[in-house]
Amino acid sequence: MIYYAKSSQKDGTRETVREHLQAVETLARIYGKAFDAEIPADLCGLFHDFGKYSAAFQKVLQGTQTGVDHATGGAAFLYLYQVGKKQTGKNAYRPVIEAVAAHHTHLISQEDLAGMLETVLRSENPVTTLSGKQAALCGMKDYQQAGQAFQKDFPDFRFPPAKSLAPQLPFIGQEDAMLYTRMLFSCLTDADYTASANDPPAEGPPLDVSSALKNLYAHCEALRVGSKADPVLNQFRNRLFDRCGQAGEQEGGLFTLTAPTGTGKTLALLHFALRHCQYTGKRRIIVVLPFLSLIEQSARIYRQILPQVLEDHSQSRLPEEMREHAARWDQPFLITTSVRFFESLFSDHPSDCRKLHNLAGSVILFDEAQSLPVSLLTPTLKTMKALCNRYGCSVVFSTATQPDYTGLREITWPASELLPEHRDFYQALRRTSVRWELDTPIPLEEIAERMAEQQNVCAIVNLRAHARKLYYTLSERCPGEELFLLSTDLCPAHRTAVIQAIHQRQKERLPCRVVSTQCIEAGVDLDFDCLYRALAPLEAIIQAAGRCNRNGRASCGEICVFVPEEDRLYPDAHYENGATIVRAMAIQHPIDIHDPENIRRYYQQLFGAFRGDRRSRALEKAIAERDFPAVAQTYRLIDQRGIQILVPYEGQKELYEKLRTEALKTGLTKALLKQAATLMVTCYDRELAEQVCEPLYLAGAGRPETRESPCYVVLSGQESCYDEKMGFCPPEKQDLQNSIW
User: Fold this and answer.
1) Same-domain status, 540 and 509
2) Are residues 214 and 188 part of one domain?
3) Are residues 178 and 296 in the same domain?
4) 431 Cβ contact partners less than 8 Å away, ≥ 6 residues apart
5) Is the CA virtual torsion 131, 133, 136, 138 positive or negative?
6) Which residue, 306, 318, 707, 370, is CA-closest to 538?
7) Sheet of 680-683, strand order
8) Last residue of a domain, one of 593, 612, 633
9) Ranges 59-63, 223-227, 612-616, 662-666, most confident
10) Least confident of 164-178, 310-324, 554-568
11) Which of these, 34, 48, 387, 342, lies nearest to 203 by C-alpha position?
12) Residues 394 and 261 in one domain
C-alpha cells in the first residue's frame, strides 16, 4: 500500500508520506544544527506525521472521513519505544514526543500526555485525543502495521541511543528545559510549514557586516558635522560609540549598557552588535523595543545604514514576499516588540514558536530594558541566560536606569557592563536639576498656572484622567495651537502626528506646552526646557528627565516632581510601590537621578520588597508543573483586559471608513486587524464603550460569525466621541472635572 501525505496537486502529482517525512526531516535537522540538536530535530521531522501511515488518514484524503488526529500517532510510537527501553527516567525522548504531539495544536507536557498516549496504544476502539479528534492509530495492531510501513520506507533507520538525544549541557531549571522543547518544536513546525508550502521562501541573505560598518561610520560622521548639540555632549556620544565598538570584540554572553539618556545608545548598540558579529561570527541582529513609537524611530535610523530592516510587530504592513520572513525571523536584521519577543519565548502555539530556532547564534539588543514587569522577571532572566548558554546568543540590556537584578530571589546575573565608566557620563552630563515637592499635594490647577507662564514645557502624569483634567485646565489659559495632549486615548497614528507637530514647534522655537501620560517617556525625541513629573517609580522619573534639556541647549533644565492633589494616584499596585520607595528615599536623603548608586539602591529596595503577586505565583506554579498552556496564558507583558476600539481619527479618515465598512460586512481577519492597529485605542470601561460603540465579529465564510472579537467600532453618528485634540472622549465623560478616566 502506498501511503500519501497530501491530496493530489493540480498537476496530478501526490506527495507520499515517505517524501514528506524526508523533506521535513532534512530541514528540521538543518535548523537543529544551529544549537547542536541535529539528532532530536531529525527525529521530530521523521516521526511528526507517523500517524499518516493509517487507513483513517488515507480516508481523510479520499474525502470519506473527517476529524482525524495524525499527530498523536508519532508521539505515541516514540513514547512506546521510550517506555519499552526503560528510558522514562532519563526523559530522553520527552521534548521530541512533546514537539511531535503538538505540531498541529499546542504544546502539552509528556506527563499530561502520558495517559492519553497509553490509551491510544492499547485501545482497539476509537479514541478521542486531546485535540478533540479521533486518533488515526488505535491499538497495538495499528501501530505494528504503521511501524512496518515506516520501516519499509526507511529501512536503514535505527533509534538513536538516549545519550545522543541529550543536550550537551545539563538543564538549569525548568525554564531551560521548557525552552529546549520549544526550540525543537520550532525546528519541526518551521520545517513542516516550509516543506508544505507550494513556494517555500528562500533563506534571508547573510549579514554583510563590512558594508554595514562602513555605512554606520559614514552616517555618524554626517551627524557629527551637522550636530547643533552641546559640544561636551557630543564628545561623550562619540566616546560611548567608540567604547561599544571596542567592547564588541569579546566572546559572547550577557551584557548591560548603562548610559544617560541622549548619549546615542541606539547607534552605539548597533556598533557593538556589528563588531561583535564580525568577531564571533554570529549570524543576525535582533533589536527588541518596548514601544511601537521607539520602533518607528529606530527603524528610520537603521534603514539609513542597513540595506534590509525587517519589522515584525502588530502595526507592520509588510509586502507579501516579506510576511513569511517575519513569521520565521530569518532575516539578518530584525526589529520587534518586547511583547512579540518574550511572549513567543513562553508560547505553546506553532505559529508563535516557529521562529524561535532562528534566535540561535544571534545578537539580541534590549533597549529600555527597565520596562519588564517585575512579576515576570525571574523566569525571563533565566530564559535569557539559557539563550546565551545553550543557543550561542549574546544579549545586551540597555537603559539609562539599569535594574540591579541581584536583588531578585532565585537568580544570578553574571552580566558584563559595556561601559564600566558610566558613572563619569552621568556626572559630566548633568543637564537637569530636580526639585522634589513631595511634602504637600499640589492641585493640577496650580501646575496649569505654572505651565502657562513657560514657553517650552511638559507635564507627565500617571493617569489619563489627570492628563485630561490638566489639559482642560491649561486650555483655558493658553492658545490652542500652543497646547498638546499625548495619551493612549489617542490612537497611534494620532500620537505620531502630534509628536511631529510638537517637534516642529520646538524646532522653530515657538511656544509649546505638552500634557502627557507615560507614553512620552521612552525614546520620544522631544526637548523641553522645563518638565513637571507626577511622583512615579524612579525609572519613570529618570526616563521623563530625558525629555528635558535633551540636547544641552540650556544651562540646566528644570524638573519638578510633585504629588497631584487627586484621590487616585497610580495605575496599579506595582507602580504605586515604586513611587512609595522613591518618596521614602527622598525623605531619607535627596535623590540624585544622575548618580547610578541611587538607581542601584532603588532597585535593591524594589526587588527586595517584592514577595510575589498573583501573576508571579501562577507563573511559578505553571513552570514547576511543566504546564505549557498555563505558562503561555500567564506570561503576558500587557494587561489585555481592555477592549480595542477602532476610532475615526480625522487624519486617517479614508482608511477608517474603509476598515469600518469591511469589518462590519465580512468580519475581522488578521490582515484587517493589522491594518487597523494604528487606529485602535484601548478602553477599560466596557459599559462606557458600549454606549458609543458596537462590537465587531470574527470573519466567517464571507460574512461575520456570531463570535464576538475583543474589538469594537464607533457607532455611526457617534463620531464626536473621538476628539481631534483629546482622542477617545465620549460625550458622557467630557465633564472632565469629575471624570474617572
Assistant:
1) yes
2) no
3) no
4) 233, 262, 548, 549, 550, 552, 554, 556, 557
5) positive
6) 370
7) 680-683, 643-646, 704-714, 693-699
8) 593
9) 59-63
10) 310-324
11) 34
12) yes
Cα separation, 115 vs 109, whole angstroms = 11
Residue 677 or 417, more confident: 417
Backbone angles phi, psi at 582, to 5 degrees: -60, -45
Q: Are 488 and 645 in contact (CB under 8 A)?
A: no
pLDDT digits (tens, 9 = 90+) for 372-425: 888 999 999 999 999 999 999 999 999 988 998 887 877 888 899 999 999 999
CATH of the domain at 299: 3.40.50.300
CB 513 within 8 A of CB 481: no
Are 51 and 137 in contact by the 8 Å Cβ rule? The answer is yes
State the cell numbers at 198.
Answer: 507550494
Query: Domains in the chain: how many in total?
Result: 4
**Average pLDDT rounded to a whole number, residues 671-694:** 85
pLDDT score at 231:
85
Q: What's this model's pTM, rounded to 2 decimal places?
A: 0.89
- The position carrying cell 536639576 is 433
Contacts of 205 (CB under 8 A, 6+ apart): 308, 331, 332
DSSP string, 185-252: HHHHHHHHHHHH-SSPPPPPPPP-HHHHHHHHHHHHHHHHHH--S-HHHHHHHHHHHHHHHHHTSS--
* SS3 of the chain: helix, strand, coil, percent, to 5: 50, 15, 35
* Cα atoms in the Cβ-side hemisphere of radius 13 Å centred on 737: 2
Residue 139 backbone dihedrals phi, psi, to 5 degrees: 90, 155
Domain-located, residue 598: no
Q: Let me know whether 339 and 398 are in one domain.
A: yes
User: 526-543: per-residue pLDDT in tens?
Assistant: 889 999 999 999 999 998
532 part of a folded domain: yes
State whether 572 and 710 are in the same domain. no
Question: Which of 196, 225, 242 is the C-terminal boundary of a domain?
Answer: 196
User: Do both 158 and 275 map to the same domain?
Assistant: no
Phi-psi region of 262 (alpha: psi -120 to 50; beta: other; left: phi over 0): left
Taking a C-beta distance cutoff of 8 angstroms, is the pair 547, 532 a contact?
Answer: no
Range of the domain at 296: 209-425
Q: Does 471 fall in a domain?
A: yes
Got the DSSP string for 41-84? Answer: HHHHHHHTTGGGSSHHHHHHHHTS---EE-HHHHHHHHHHHHHH
The answer to whether residue 377 is domain-embedded is yes
Indicate the length of the chain as a whole number: 741
Q: Are residues 180 and 318 in the same domain?
A: no
Please give the DSSP secondary-structure letter assigned to residue 613.
Answer: -
Pick from 455, 434, 636, 629: which is nearest to 535 by CA?
A: 434
pLDDT band at 738 (very low <50, low <70, confident <90, very high): very low
CA of residue 323 relative to chain centroid, distance: 17
Share of the chain above pLDDT 70, in %: 93
| 14 CB-near residues (< 8 Å, 6+ apart) | 4, 6, 7, 8
Rounded to the nearest 10°, the torsion over CA 327, 331, 333, 335 is -10
The CB density around residue 168, as the number of other CB atoms within 10 Å, is 8
Q: For the CA atoms of 18, 24, 26, 28, what is the dihedral angle to 10 degrees? A: -150
Nearest to 678 by CA among 513, 523, 509, 496: 496
Instruction: Please state the separation of Cα 4 from the chain's center in Å.
Output: 39
The pLDDT of residue 704 is 57
pLDDT of residue 613: 86
Residues 192, 193, 194, 200, CA torsion sign: positive
